Amino acid sequence: MHSLASLLVTAALVCSLASASNPVSIPIIHGQLNVHTKRLAQLPRFEGDSAKIICIVPHQNHLYVCTLNAIYKVNFRGSVSLYLDIQKAIASQTPRSLNYDNRAHGGVRSIAFHPDFPRNGLLYVSAMESRPSNPKQFTYISDTHKPIAADSVLLEFKHNFGRGVPDHSSYRNVFRVGMRVFDHPIKQIAFREGLLYIAHGDGSFQSATAGGGQRNDALGKILRINPLRSGNSPYTVPQSNPFMGASSMKDEVYALGFRNPHQLCFGNDGTLYVADAGRDNIEEIDLVVPGGNYGWAEREGTFVHLSKGGLVSGVQSLPSDDAKHGYIYPAAQVGHEGRHGAGFVGQAVAGGCPIENNSPMSGNYYYCDFPKSGKLYYSTISELKSARTTGSPSQLTQARTRQATIFFDHDNNPGTPPKKFDSLGDLVRYDTSEDIGDRADIRLGRGPAGQLYWSSKANGRVYIFTSSMPGGPGGPV
């Protein structure tokens, strides 16, 4: 019996057209959800360019927005203030510097506030920092014998409640990860029940096949630690970690087999959602469990990943006995579309969060084709949880991917009709006065009341989906 994935990829291989190849032939569903959005805030320009917004993180009654060099505090009326200049903090406390030589993967990546922040004032930042001249004096989860000039780092700062901002002097280096190339480094971080989850890319160039994911290192992994200092240890590893004490994998590893896990987000019930950007063929939405192996670089989506080839030609159907490897396959997947055999086609997934707040957008997990098109996708939470992601290839199933229609309140006037867009990318190009080319660079983030925000690196703006607020406009069609 052939698996559905096998039949689909075979059909794509046989029937692909020069301009419309796609390894996933199940179509995306359109026209079932209308979402409304409006502007919230404009972040300051940096070095003559629009702010490169990397993350949107809620804490108490504010949003904290990461850019290449700093973290800004944004209130729900759109007021923006500088919260922490990471670049200045590092330079003031160390001989090193924040590194954003690669502006797509460098600089500040994420921020997370300790659950006991009201008492201890601690917050954590993931970033790329220049490599120390004396690396043996630092704690590395893993390193490489041919490192680049920057490391992935986790930093700790302490908030000064009197001044209302963190003290630069509280800078503490929690851990470092050595990188072979300046691509797919440390990503988003988030707390759950006192433990910090860290997404880390596989350390490979776009479309490279030599990246990590399966090796005994921090690359291509979701890590989990308690970041608090304990005696002489800069952090501790919980005894409940799935590889604790195993010689085959680092104690800090929570799950493995990822390529470029941009975002991680927890559902109300603790389900960990991770959006993993693929190589030339498949974008994944994974529901992550402790000890799970999500297949990269041996698998890309529900396909065998080949060391050569591009779009469609770089994957093949799963063997019938693939269950023996124990891989976990995506709960939802989106195929790239373009010329057969193409390499980088400018399509990649940025994840958001499940919305579970009884708003018109509630009941779905949202994700986005972030680089160029900005298409806003969603899958129902129920379908994601019921997808069969292990076992025989013939039995694998995925949640359907749907695409929302966007309505933009362009003038902040409820008396005028909103403008309709098929994608957030089209909206950004409309809402930006300067020429931004074909890049939209969308990021998604959830607010403290479960509402959904989004941003664009192209214009440095933060927007809110008003449909993600209880009682807001829009909803299922």
TrEMBL record:
Residues 101-298 form the Glucose/Sorbosone dehydrogenase domain. Coiled coil: none annotated. Keywords: Signal. InterPro entries: 6-blade_b-propeller_TolB-like, Glc/Sorbosone_DH, Quinoprot_gluc/sorb_DH_b-prop. Gene3D superfamilies: TolB, C-terminal domain. PANTHER family: HEDGEHOG-INTERACTING PROTEIN (PTHR19328), HIPL1 PROTEIN (PTHR19328:SF13). This is HHIP-like protein 1. It comes from Gracilariopsis chorda.
